[in-house]
Amino acid sequence: MDKATRKRILDVLDANRIMSIATLRSDGWPQATTVGYVNDGLAIWFLCGRDSQKATNLARDDRVSLTINGDPSDIMAITGLSMAAHAIPVTNRAEAEKVLRLMPAKYPEQKALPVAMPTPDDVSLFRIEPSVISVLDYTLGFGHADLVTCP
Question: Which of 44, 73, 96, 109 has a Cα-to-Cα distance from 116 of 20 to 30 A?
Answer without folding.
Answer: 44
